[in-house]
Design goal:
The protein is α/β, with parallel strands linked by helices. The chain is built from twelve helices and 13 strands. The strands form three sheets. Strands 2-8-7-6-5-3-4 form a seven-stranded mixed β-sheet, sandwiched between helices. A four-stranded antiparallel β-sheet has the order 9-10-13-12, with helices on one face. 50% of the residues are buried.
C-alpha cells in the first residue's frame, strides 16, 4: 500500500528508529530505577534524546524537554498549568480537539481569532483580541486539515507585549518547520514524537519555558522519601515508568531530522504537495493550496463535488492508497473551512514519500 497519511503518523521510519526501539526492549532498564548498568544505560539514552531535541528546537536546558505519551498528553499538562476554571483563552479557528476538549473540560471561555487558510495577514485580528488580555493563548503552529501555517513568531511577540502566556501546538510543524524555543519565548510547546520527528507512536514532547504543574503523580525515581513530586524538571512532569523503546526510537528520529535538515524536509514535502494539488485540480477537485509554499506544511485537503470524502477514501484504500477523510479530529477547522460536517480527503506526505507515489495516486 502507498502511504499518504503522514499527518496522522509517519508510518515509514528511518531504519535506525526501528532498530533502536527493538534493542531497547531487551537492553534498557528504567531511568532512575537503580544504579546498575541497564538502568544507567537507559538514563543515558533518555538524556541523549533530550539533548537532541534541545538542539533541534533551541531549548537552552535539555532538562526542560519533558517526555509525554503524545501531543495530547503534552497539551493537557500545559493547559492544566495555565488555565483555570472559566478563564478566557485565545485560540485560532483551526484548533484540534487536543486543544478544544481540555479547554472545554476547564469550562474556558473561548476567544476565537478567525482567519482564512494561508492568511499571513491575520495579525490585526490577533492584536485586537490580545489587547483584551485573555488568560492564555493556545495556538496551533500549523493546521492538521489544510497545513496552513500561522505567523507564530509575530503572534508570540504580541503575546509578550500584552503579557499573555502562550502554548504552541506544534503537532503538524515539528520536524518540518523551524521552531526556535528561545526566539518564540513560548511558555510551552507541545508536539508528538510519531509524526514529523519520525519516532514510534506513544511518544511526545513538551518543551517547557516555565515550570508546569504536575499532571500525573507517582514515582519519579528521585526524591523517593517525599510524598509530593520533585519540584524540578523533568522529574516533576514525568511520573511513572518511561517508555524506553519509544524514547530510544524517538532519539534516532530526531537525529534523522537534525542530519537531513528541517528546511530540506520542508522543501521536499512542499514539492510533493504542489504536484498533488496540480494533478487533482486537473481532475476537477477543489484543493486548499497556499499561493506561497512557505505558508503550508506537507498536508493537502481536497474534495470532489458531490462525492462523500469517506467513500472516496474507501475507494482509494481499495486501490492501494492510504489517505484520511472526514473531520480529522478538528471540527472547528472544518466549520471555518466550510466543509463541516462531511470534511475533506487529506493527503499528507513525509521525507519518505516519493514523486512516483504521488503520481501513482493521481493516476487513480
Amino acid at each position: 500500500m502507498i502511504y499518504l497519511d503522514s499527518a496522522a503518523t509517519t508510518l515509514r521510519k528511518p531504519p535506525e528508529v526501528v532498530n533502536a526501539a527493538a534493542r531497547a526492549i531487551t537492553t534498557l532498564g528504567s531511568p532512575g530505577r537503580g544504579g546498575h548498568d541497564l538502568a544507567m544505560r537507559a538514563a543515558e539514552c533518555a538524556y541523549t534524546c533530550r539533548e537532541r531535541a534541545a538542539r533541534l528546537f533551541n531549548v537552552e536546558n535539555p532538562e526542560n524537554v519533558v517526555f509525554t505519551m503524545n501531543a495530547t498528553h503534552a497539551l493537557n499538562i500545559a493547559i492544566n498549568s495555565l488555565v483555570g476554571r472559566g478563564d478566557r483563552v485565545l485560540i485560532s479557528s483551526w484548533e484540534h480537539n487536543a486543544v478544544l476538549r481540555p479547554l472545554a473540560g476547564k469550562g474556558a471561555e473561548l476567544v476565537i481569532a478567525k482567519s482564512e487558510p494561508f492568511d499571513g495577514g491575520c495579525l490585526d485580528e490577533y492584536e485586537r483580541l490580545l489587547k483584551t488580555r485573555p488568560k492564555c493563548a493556545v495556538l496551533n503552529h500549523a493546521s492538521n486539515v489544510t497545513g496552513s501555517i500561522l505567523p507564530i513568531y509575530e503572534i508570540a511577540d504580541m503575546c509578550r507585549r500584552f503579557g499573555v502566556p502562550l502554548i504552541v501546538d506544534a503537532s503538524q510543524s515539528a520536524g518540518s518547520v523551524r521552531i526556535d524555543m528561545q526566539a518564540l519565548e513560548a511558555d510551552f510547546i507541545a508536539m508528538p514524537g510519531h509524526k514529523g520527528l519520525y519516532g514510534p507512536q506513544g511518544t511526545g514532547l513538551l518543551l517547557c519555558g516555565r515550570t508546569p504543574k504536575p499532571f500525573l503523580l507517582g514515582g519519579s525515581g528521585s526524591d523517593s522519601a517525599r510524598d509530593t513530586m520533585p519540584d524540578y524538571l523533568p522529574d516533576l512532569a514525568e511520573a511513572g515508568t518511561h517508555n524506553m523503546p519509544g524514547i530510544a526510537g524517538l532519539s534516532e528520529g530526531i537525529d534523522f531530522v537534525l542530519k537531513r535538515g528541517v528546511e530540506n524536509i520542508r522543501a521536499g514535502e512542499s514539492r510533493l504537495i504542489r504536484l498533488a494539488a496540480e494533478g487533482l485540480r486537473g481532475k476537477g477537485a477543489k484543493v486548499w493550496l497556499a499561493e506561497k509554499p512557505d505558508m503550508q506544511t506537507g498536508v493537502l485537503s481536497f474534495v470532489f463535488e458531490g462525492e462523500d470524502p469517506e467513500a472516496a477514501a474507501g475507494r482509494y484504500n481499495d486501490a492501494g492508497f492510504a489517505l484520511r477523510a472526514g473531520l480529522h479530529c478538528a471540527p472547528l477547522a472544518h466549520r471555518t473551512l466550510g466543509t463541516f460536517p462531511s470534511g475533506t480527503v487529506r493527503l499528507s506526505v513525509s521525507a519518505f514519500t516519493t514523486v512516483q507515489e504521488v503520481e501513482a495516486f493521481l493516476e487513480v
